[in-house]
From TrEMBL:
Signal peptide: none annotated. Belongs to the inositol monophosphatase superfamily. The lineage of its organism: Eukaryota, Fungi, Dikarya, Basidiomycota, Agaricomycotina. It catalyses: 3'-phosphoadenylyl sulfate + H2O = adenosine 5'-phosphosulfate + phosphate; adenosine 3',5'-bisphosphate + H2O = AMP + phosphate; adenosine 2',5'-bisphosphate + H2O = AMP + phosphate. It comes from the Eukaryota. Its EC number is 3.1.3.7. Mg(2+) binds at residues 71, 143, 145-146, 289. GO terms for molecular function: 3'(2'),5'-bisphosphate nucleotidase activity; metal ion binding. This is 3'(2'),5'-bisphosphate nucleotidase. The keyword Hydrolase applies. InterPro entries: DPNP (IPR006239), Inositol_monoP_metal-BS (IPR020583), Inositol_monoP_superfamily (IPR051090), Inositol_monophosphatase-like (IPR000760). GO terms for biological process: sulfate assimilation. Pfam families: Inositol_P. PROSITE patterns: IMP_1. It comes from Lentinula edodes (Shiitake mushroom).
């Protein structure tokens, strides 16, 4: 039986939108007008913690029995040395929770004027993200700021929330405050919400929640096809994807962008494929980095697998298990892309063997 998940969808849009107002305000207050010392990550830390506090305390009111797999935990904030950071986070989270109600917001979710939370409640909310994940039952997964490096550069980042039921993503919402509604008009309106519900399709909305448009990936067109990939070469191997691109004879350069905004772009027809190949450091992908994105792909007409052609498994715990990369593209391009990926993986394994032997 397929469930409608109407309330969960409305809730996820509301929570992500509220968290996006918070992260935009953190950027304007702490990054834009201050000259940060290179490598200072404190603004993103403030944003990460307070956005997770907001989403998680809303979840506690709306769905008190649902466990949460969240990226952050409050251990650093509970330490005596975390006092000033804690004060900032409490102030920002309460500012976001008490903001006026907007489209689809419901006061019972603990939002709107008068909804301040105590320090302890907010720290507990952050720590409720400590669920270990697994194969059975309902759970939510939160990435309060995905693409932290993009956030600090004033470029792309995303606030991500998904509902997983029995290891299947059922609802996913992505908020991308800096993403143009149309990538070819980068100076026009910015701020997108991407929403998907299993079996009901994917949509793009303005960050206000207005003007929904259904998303369908266009068919494979080699002349305009390009890869959406990480900005950070440490997160996804640029050299591997450029070899794959050469095998396919692609002429367009990759579109490099931080965060799951790449998945939203893919779903609406930008680029052609999401490409994430492991860099060989033994990193395990986290479920919150792919849950919403994977549903956006399948609900807009795409296929998402690892480099072996197997589906991503959201039932293994907080990670996706051993890292075989992620490839996502429109249905009619997936087999072609997969075979090019496998050819390059084989080449690279042979080269590694040779260099070990010599
Ligand atoms: N080594 C390695 N390999 C793969 N992935 C890694 C690695 N290290 C970190 N991460 C995760 O990458 C998340 C952001 O990656 P993105 O590809 O979305 O953006 S970018 O790499 O910053 O361009 C990033 O998410 P955030 O921490 O939420 O920003 C990390 O979870
Ligand atoms: Mg992330
Ligand atoms: Mg994050
Ligand atoms: Mg992180």
């Amino acid at each position: 039986m397929s469930l409608a998940y109407t309330t969960e969808k409305q809730f996820a849009i509301s929570a992500v939108r509220r968290a996006c107002l918070l992260t935009s305000s953190v950027f304007n207050k702490l990054v834009k007008n201050e000259t940060l010392v290179k490598g200072d990550k404190s603004p993103v830390t403030v944003g990460d913690f307070s956005a997770q506090a907001v989403i998680s305390s809303m979840l506690h009111r709306a769905f008190p029995d649902d466990p949460i797999v969240g990226e952050e935990d409050a251990a650093d904030l509970r330490a005596a040395s975390g006092a000033s950071l804690r004060d900032r986070i409490v102030e920002l989270a309460n500012e976001a929770l008490t903001a006026e109600l907007g489209i689809g917001d419901i006061a019972e979710w603990g939002i709107g004027p008068g909804s301040e939370q105590s320090v302890d409640n907010l720290l507990d909310a952050i720590d409720r993200g400590n669920h270990e994940g697994g194969r059975n039952g309902r759970m939510w997964t939160i990435d309060p700021i995905d693409g932290t490096k993009g956030f600090l550069r004033g470029e792309q980042y995303a606030v991500c929330l998904a509902l997983i039921v029995d290891a299947q993503v059922q609802v996913g919402v992505l908020g991308c405050p800096n993403l143009p509604l149309n990538l070819s008009k980068p100076d026009e309106d910015k701020g997108c919400l991407f929403v998907a519900v299993r079996g009901q399709g994917a949509q793009q909305l303005k960050l206000t929640g207005a003007d929904p448009i259904p998303l369908t990936m266009p068919p494979y067109t080699p002349s305009s096809f390009s890869f959406l990939e990480s900005v950070e070469a440490a997160h996804s191997s640029h050299s591997t994807s450029s070899r794959i691109s050469a095998i396919l004879g692609l002429t367009q350069p990759p579109i490099r962008m931080d965060s799951q905004a790449k998945y939203g772009c893919l779903a609406r027809g930008d680029g052609g494929a999401y490409m994430r190949m492991p860099t060989g450091v033994g990193y395990k992908e986290k479920i919150w980095d792919h849950a919403t994105g994977s549903l956006l792909v399948t609900e807009s007409g795409g296929v998402i697998t690892d480099s072996r052609g197997l589906p991503l498994d959201f039932g293994l715990g907080r990670t996706l298990g051993d890292n075989y990369g992620v490839i996502a593209t429109v249905k009619d391009a997936h087999a072609k892309l997969l075979s090019a990926v496998q050819e390059v993986v084989k080449q690279e394994q042979e080269e590694a063997k040779k260099s070990k032997a010599s």
